[in-house]
Amino acid sequence: MSGDGDIKIRLVDVCKRFGDKQVLDHVSLDIAARRNAVLVGSAASGKSVLLKCLVGLHRPESGRVEIDGVDTVHLKRGERIRMMLRFGVLFQRSALFDSLPVWENIAFKLIQAERMPRPKAREHALEKLGQVGLSADVADLMPASLSGGMQKRVGLARAIAGDPEFLILDDPTAGLDPINTRNINRLINKCVDELGATALSVTGDMASAREEYDDLTMIHEGRVIWSGPTADIDRSDDPYLQQLINGRAKGPIKMRVRARGPS
Fold first, then answer.
1. β pairing state of 70-71 and 87-90
2. Would you say residue 257 lies in a domain?
3. Mean confidence (pLDDT) of the chain
4. How many angstroms from the chain centroid is the CA of residue 14?
5. In the 3-class helix/strand/coil scheme, how is the chain assigned residue by residue?
């Protein structure tokens, strides 16, 4: 991968546990500037917890989470807030505020954190709606009146509001049909390109993981199993990676999941 000067996101030996359950076990990961990376793994492998450690929603017990070379784990509250303003985040199931119209959902960070005047914030929100393929007519609707695909687009518009340097997207196509999945993936790539952003997504869609991203990291039982360019996936002989990517019933993942039981 790229030299250290190109690394925008770096995780070094990150460990996170909940009670006696080790969820992340010495996870290390580099993401280079302007790369669109994806994190994959079986259920309960630690993917979403890793994203939450990255954006400061969980604090690891040990290890470093570096953004542009700055370890963010022990930042003071004000420093962390300033750092997080550089991020756009799309949570699983979009996580829109039911009580706010679409435009205020999109402009929420701009109004609350950046103190942008409401008229200017609305104008910015309308611009972002256009970027994700939605018309201005949607701006004053409530989230409950939108289809699943439209809610995903609004969530993406909120993530790119303020033109962030980093995009963190948790399962952005979960629950969508193949057509909407393809559309959302194209919008994500478009937004990453237009912003010049560095992006990390989680997905359970292996076809998207293979086709839509520059780099892929597989995590299993809290450990990184494989990491590299998506172009190298088929050349890998790692049995975990090949089982997951190709959706095979037999393999090491199945045996380990059964041994652990439900989680």
1. unpaired
2. no
3. 90
4. 17
5. CCCHHHEEEEEEEEEEEECCEEEEEEEEEEEECCCEEEEECCCCCCHHHHHHHHCCCCCCCEEEEEECCEECCCCCHHHHHHHHCCEEEECCCCCCCCCCCHHHHHHHHHHHCCCCCHHHHHHHHHHHHHHCCCCHHHCCCCHHHCCHHHHHHHHHHHHHCCCCCEEEEECCCCCCCHHHHHHHHHHHHHHHHHHCCEEEEECCCHHHHHHCCCEEEEEECCEEEEEEEHHHHHHCCCHHHHHHHHCCCCCHHHHHHHHHCCC
Where does the pLDDT of residue 236 fall: very low under 50, low under 70, confident under 90, or very high at 90 and above? very high
108, 56: one domain: no
Residue 2 has pLDDT above 70, yes or no: no
Q: Is the pLDDT of residue 263 over 60?
A: no
Whether residues 191 and 80 fall in one domain = yes
The amino acid present at 113, given as its one-letter code, is A
Tokens describing residue 164: 């962030």
Domain end, chosen from 109, 135, 163, is at 163
CATH number for the domain that contains residue 220: 3.40.50.300
Residues 78 and 16 in one domain: yes
Residue 262 lies in a domain: no
132's tokens: 């994700």
Size of the chain, expressed as the number of residues it contains: 263
Tokens standing for 117?
């005047």
The tens digit of pLDDT for each residue in 45-56 reads: 999 999 999 999
Tokens 């994959």 belong to which residue?
Answer: 40
Give the CA distances from residue 98 to residues 85, 142, 171, 181, in Å, rounded to whole numbers and listed in that order. 23, 7, 20, 23
